[in-house]
Structure formats: C-alpha cells, structure tokens
Design a protein that fits this description.
With 298 residues, the chain is an alpha/beta fold. It has a single domain, classed as TIM Barrel. The protein is 41% helix and 16% strand. The strands form two sheets. The chain has a nine-stranded parallel β-sheet. A two-stranded antiparallel ribbon has the order 9-10. The relative contact order is 0.16.
C-alpha cells in the first residue's frame, strides 16, 4: 500500500490552457482552472501560462482553494549555450518556487527541440546530441542539481518527445552520466509510451532516481495515426494523442504497483494536454481522480 501521508495528488493546468499553444483553452481563466482542480479532488498543481506572476496573488488564490504548487517546468539550453546563462534563469525559478513552498523543478533540455514547431515532425526531425553536447548537458545538470539541493529542491529531468532526451536509451545515458544525489527524473508515462518504449523499464532500473511523476495516458488509435503520419508534437496534442489516466492504453496497474513496490514518495501529477474544446477539463479531471482512487485507494 502507498503511504497516504507521503503521496500527494496534483494535476497540471495544461488540460485547461496549453502552454505551447495558448489559443488552445484561451477562454479558460486561471480562477476557473484552479477551482475545477480543487473541485475534482486534487490538492496541488504545476504552474501554467495564466498563473499570476506575483507570488502573493498566486499563493492567496491557491490557499483559498486548498491547493499548492508541486513544481514548474524549466527550459534549459545546457548543450548549446554557456552554462551561466541557464543558471541565471534557473535561480530565478528557484526563487519563485521557494516562495510558493515547492521543492521540485522539472528541467527539460530544449536545445534544438522541435516540440513547439508545428512544421516539424517529432519522428523525422528529432534531435540527436553529439558526445560533446551530452557532456555539457550532464555536467550542467549536475551543477544545477547541486545548486538546487542546497536549497532543498530536487532537479527532476523531464524526458520529452521531440527533444534530445526522448527514448529509453537517451534517458539511460542521462541517468548514467549524472550524479544520483543531484539529478532525478520527472517520470512521464505518456512520453515513454508515445516514443514506443515500455514505461516500466525505467521504473525498474532507476527506482531511486524517480523524483516526480507525470501520469499521462495515450489513445492508441491516435498514436498510430501520429506515428504513421509522422506528425508534429503540437498536431499530436491537438488531435488527442494524450488523455488522462484510465482513458488510454498505458498499463497503470503495473506502473502503480512498481511505484508502490519501491516506496515512492511525492507527487503523482496528472498531466494530459489535449484540446479542452474536445475534452472538457473539469470532466476529465474528475475522471482521472476517480480512476486514481479506484487504482490505489487514495
């Protein structure tokens, strides 16, 4: 059994308003988003593009609804830019998250990333780092991780479609060449599945490195179309490749069993970006919350 007092359930605002495509869900307000999150039964969330930049305003709105911030996305460019540039922006994000009481930050390496480019296929145009770029990335992550740890944070690396760290092999290379005390994984069930990988593999190989969990399901029929059509990431999202846990083909029963087996502690965070005009965010949030309750009794 999961220790209920050591597991927190959250949901990302990306189901309400999309960070990569702001027009997707542009009609949904920040207040509606966090109110519906709370009504659906979640106690935490990540930071979206409509969230107030003023931490006092944001915290007051969250406190009113019994919500807290779990983590925040951070785009790094360690493979292609001087480390100091990334560190400067990283410290700003830590300052922001520290005020909000969070202790996780999700780092995604965006050097050459095609995830936000509508014109480029995530299959034909995916980046592959050189050995030198891999060294810069891993060395930079170790530095960021050490800096974050000194402030009570865990750096959780987010493998992602359309980036240089997408596949199991690339994730292994990153894990094996970074410090286990300073660099953890933002484990995403949907991205491994979309990449044609077995999400259970990483859980079993690096249980001690799982710092944050994104619960994302995948619609198998849309995945097939995306793969055969060699779609861009943005088209894949708009067409409904991703959905909430329990609404797709991901084997969450085995994933939850594995997380429970090694005693995972921290956030289980639903992150299912899709078109809110097609998939009502509140309805899908409730679906996800009910499914999690049925699966792990939390």
């Amino acid at each position: 059994m999961f220790h209920k007092d050591k597991i927190k359930l959250g949901i990302a605002p990306i189901g309400w308003t999309n960070d990569d495509m702001p027009a997707l869900g542009g009609e949904n307000t920040f207040e509606q988003c966090i109110s519906e999150m709370a009504l659906a039964g979640f106690t935490g969330c990540e930071v979206g593009n409509k969230y107030p930049k003023d931490t006092k305003v944001l915290k007051a709105a969250l406190d009113l609804r019994g919500m807290s911030i779990a983590s925040k996305w951070f785009s790094s460019f360690l493979a292609t830019k001087p480390y100091e540039e990334t560190e400067k922006e990283f410290i700003k994000e830590l300052d922001y998250l520290e005020v909000l009481g969070a202790n996780r930050i999700n780092v995604s390496e965006q050097s050459y990333s095609v995830q936000g480019n509508e014109a480029l296929s995530i299959f034909d145009n995916k980046v592959y780092f050189t050995d030198e770029e891999w060294n810069k990335l891993c060395d930079g992550l170790n530095k960021l991780g050490k800096l974050a740890a000194a402030r009570g944070f865990k750096v959780c690396f987010h493998h992602h479609m359309g980036t240089g760290v997408q596949t199991i092999a690339e994730t292994e290379r990153l894990m094996d060449n970074t410090d286990k005390d300073y660099v953890f994984l933002c484990y995403d069930t949907g991205h491994f599945t979309f990449s044609g990988e077995d999400p259970l593999y990483i859980l079993r190989k690096y249980p001690e490195r799982i710092g944050h969990v994104h619960l994302k399901d995948v619609r198998e029929d849309v995945l097939k179309k995306a793969t055969e059509g060699k779609w861009s990431f943005l088209k894949s999202v708009r067409e409904g490749t991703f959905t909430v846990p329990g609404d797709g083909c991901v084997d969450f029963k085995s994933i939850f069993a594995e997380l429970e087996k090694f005693g995972y502690e921290g956030w289980l965070l639903v992150e299912a970006e899709q078109d809110p005009a097609k998939a009502n965010p509140f309805q899908y949030a409730k679906m996800a919350r009910n499914y999690i309750r049925q699966m792990i009794n939390i």
